[in-house]
Design brief:
five-stranded antiparallel sheet; alpha+beta; six-stranded antiparallel sheet; disordered N terminus; single chain; disordered C terminus
Length: 742
């Protein structure tokens, strides 16, 4: 054992030795009690997070989008806000008279269902082929849509007639299906993630107590973050939806555990040198606080850059997830050290570290084991290794050519069973695909007919109507000849509803409202209608399809803006941390290449294995933010230790010693983070399943190829120049290998 280190630990002039014994007991006790209180308060908030979360897509659009402006104007025309549900009935060979009676009775029952607005149920509308009929049900937007849809579907399920099929679809049906898919986010997601992490930690440490301490610290961080997020959401300071909630859970558990792994590695090293648990704790904190804070800081910075997004669903993820990382950092640097101080060497039972025992920091590169062997291999063939690794990553990145991330029909968002998706398919068979989800057009009163003419002349538009209080159905058909009369012959002509000099038209499209064909048609309509309105009084196109279109457009804008910003900010942080320009450039380049490779492989898997219809444009953005920010964490863990070893052993040997000392920690951290993100795949949500695969695969690629082979081999090959322009770049590069180490 290094006697000098032991003598230094006993030095009464050291700050850790001057702390009175009562403070050594009081400080960790107070920290544990404070976090225990946060754990209890936050745990109680888990039941409230669902109540403050919303999955209404319109709320997450930028205020400047055309669909948002139409939504605001539309509420003035319709009064109370409503979400439409479409109930479709169908029988092969044609509906019978008995079927029509049953459908009429069902419509009456729908009107009596709590949450359905007054006079919000339409008469049954038969299809041209006589095989189907649809009923439109307007659900009060202020009600719990999922519960109302559940009641309506229960009434449908009670109709037990052979051969008569029924589904509830439309926007309300989709909202209910999406809410149902997120139902397991509190219990199932956390159970799977925590079980996977616990199993990995038990295998890594072969200790039953240590994994419990680490997961207890991570859960305390999550509970505190949930409490703060719920309070801010309840005060309308921020929004939260299901996907943000799921990402928050996974990110906090994964990040807090990763930071804990780094601290515990340092603590175990210190226990090999110091007899006193208190002294070992301070030594571990001195060795780990800087990389932990830097790692967390890069993630927080990357997340907060999402505030520059146009899409509110992207924007809200930034502060919500950043709050989670802040508490992960706090728990890793306060609660975990306090718990480990309390447990001491017992935490590692049955493999307790002993003073004088050879620890990881004293193992030479000639030792047995995976990491010393890998270090010797890199020393012999550094250039071959980094070139081969780079080529392999480049081949994987070729899969990007097949990536389909320009949007996907909202009916595809829910994986597995979805009544709204099945119902929409049936609607498209017997009615215009956009039936029940029309494009909504707001036009100046004087431009009503010109706007209708443009709509009717566009391929893909089935029919046009205008909102009118004079019509029993609430709308009047509009043709090339003008507004069609209603009522008995000789009655007064019906007039459209005019508010603030504007009228509201509805265009039923031939394509399903959530389809990419409908989005393309809305884009065409906006272009054609631009000539009808004026700059001061334009014709606006909104509705369900326009919401999806504007969401995709904003997501693509955000992706193109945020990704470069994240790279620039993280590079600046690395330059400050490592006091170098060359090393950060190489590290960022490796992370970008690793991300491209992960996305390329993911595209191949999505297209050829899972046969997904496509991906939301935000999937690559979120994948990039998490992979780059978290991948840089491992860069920081590795290179801060390499820098520390370089000061003593020279540049090239410093690289190899840094690899040996951090290899186990980074591998364990990568496995933990991959497992936690993979847990998102248990939720039947397309976005989360794709994000889970991209991040989990990317983290493993980063852990086993980039951080274990590419970066060490490239750094070794470059030598001391990697630290330019700091003083380390001018140190003698003198590795201490002997003949027996070659």
């Amino acid at each position: 054992m290094n006697k000098t280190a032991l003598d230094r630990s006993a030095d009464p002039t050291r700050p850790s030795s001057r702390v009175p014994r009562w403070l050594r007991v009081t400080i960790p006790a107070v920290l544990i009690l404070v976090w225990f209180a946060l754990f209890g308060i936050g745990g109680a908030s888990f039941g409230s997070i669902g109540a403050v979360a919303t999955n209404d897509q319109v709320q997450f659009l930028p205020a400047s989008s055309e669909a948002t402006r139409v939504q605001q104007i539309q509420s003035e025309f319709r009064g109370n806000e409503s979400i439409p549900a479409i109930v479709i009935f169908q029988r092969d060979g044609g509906l019978t008279d008995a079927d029509r009676t049953i459908i009429a009775d069902a419509a009456t029952a729908f009107q009596a269902t709590p949450g359905v607005i007054a006079d919000g149920v339409s008469p049954a509308i038969p299809s041209a082929d006589g095989e189907a009929a649809e009923v439109f049900v307007q659900i009060d937007a202020t009600a719990e849509v999922k519960d109302v849809v559940g009641d309506l579907r229960a009434e449908l399920a009670a109709i037990d007639v052979d051969g008569l099929t029924s589904y509830l679809a439309g926007p309300a049906g989709f909202t209910a299906d999406l809410s149902g898919a997120f139902a397991g986010i509190d219990g199932l997601l956390l159970a799977v993630a925590l079980s996977a992490v616990f199993l990995i930690l038990v295998i890594v440490y072969r200790s039953p107590l240590l994994p419990l301490i680490m997961l207890g610290s991570s859960m305390a961080a999550l509970c505190a973050a949930v409490f703060v997020v719920v309070q801010l959401a309840a005060a309308d300071i921020l929004l939260i939806n299901g996907q943000t909630q799921g990402i928050l859970f996974i990110l906090v558990i994964g990040a807090a555990t990763d930071y804990s792994l780094l601290y515990i590695a340092r603590y175990r090293e210190a226990l090999h040198v110091h007899e006193s648990k208190w002294t070992a704790t301070w030594a571990a904190l001195r060795g780990s606080w800087e990389p932990i804070l830097a790692a967390g800081g890069t993630v927080i910075a990357a997340l907060l850059l999402l505030l520059f997004s146009e899409l509110n669903s992207n924007k809200i993820l930034g502060p919500v997830a950043a709050i989670g990382i802040v508490f992960a950092l706090l728990a890793s640097l306060t609660l975990l050290p306090a718990l480990m101080l309390w447990a001491g060497r017992t935490a590692f039972w049955p493999r307790r570290p002993k003073v004088g025992e050879v620890g990881p920091s004293e193992k030479s590169l000639t030792a047995k084991g995976i990491w010393p062997s890998l270090a010797r291999f890199i020393r012999r063939r550094p250039r071959t290794i980094w070139i081969t690794s780079t080529l392999l990553l480049g081949v994987m990145a070729l899969g990007l050519l097949g990536l389909k991330a320009d949007g996907v029909a909202s009916s595809e968002f829910v994986l597995g069973e979805s009544q709204s998706r099945d119902g929409q398919a049936l609607i498209s068979e017997h009615f215009p695909g956009g039936s029940g989800t029309p494009a909504v057009i707001v036009a100046p009163e004087g431009a009503l007919q010109p706007a209708a003419d443009v709509l009717l002349a566009t391929d893909g538009v089935d029919s046009v109507s205008v909102l009118s209080a004079d019509s029993p159905s609430g709308t009047l058909p509009v043709t090339a000849e003008g507004i069609q009369p209603v009522g008995a012959p000789g009655s007064a002509p019906a007039e459209p509803t005019v508010i603030n000099g504007q009228v509201l038209l509805q265009a039923t499209l031939n394509y399903a409202g959530d389809s990419l064909q409908a989005e393309a048609l809305v884009t065409e309509l906006r272009t054609e209608l631009a000539s009808v309105g004026t700059a001061e009084d334009p014709v606006l196109v909104g509705g369900t399809t326009a919401v999806a279109l504007d969401t995709n457009t904003a997501a693509i804008h955000d992706r193109n803006l945020i990704i470069p910003l994240v790279l620039i900010v993280i590079m600046l942080i690395l330059m400050v941390l490592l006091r170098s320009i060359v090393a950060p450039l190489l590290l960022i380049g490796s992370v970008v290449l690793s991300f491209a490779s992960a996305l390329g492989v993911s595209a191949l898997v999505f297209n050829n294995v899972f046969h997904f219809a496509g991906a939301d444009p935000v999937v690559p953005l979120f994948g990039f933010v998490f992979l780059v920010a978290l991948g840089v964490d491992y860069n920081i863990f590795l290179m801060t230790r390499v820098r520390e070893e370089t000061k003593v052993h020279g540049a090239r040997e410093g690289v190899l010693r840094g690899l040996v000392l951090t290899g186990g920690v980074i591998t364990s951290a990568g496995l933990v983070l991959a497992a936690t993100f993979a847990a998102l795949g248990v939720l039947p949500i397309l976005f989360l399943a794709q994000l889970a695969f991209i991040v989990a695969f990317g983290v493993l690629l980063d852990t086993f190829l980039v951080r274990s082979l590419l970066i060490p081999a490239l750094s070794y090959d470059i030598g001391r120049a990697i630290w330019w322009p700091s003083k380390l770049s001018r140190m003698p590069d003198s590795p201490r290998f002997t003949a027996s180490e070659k």
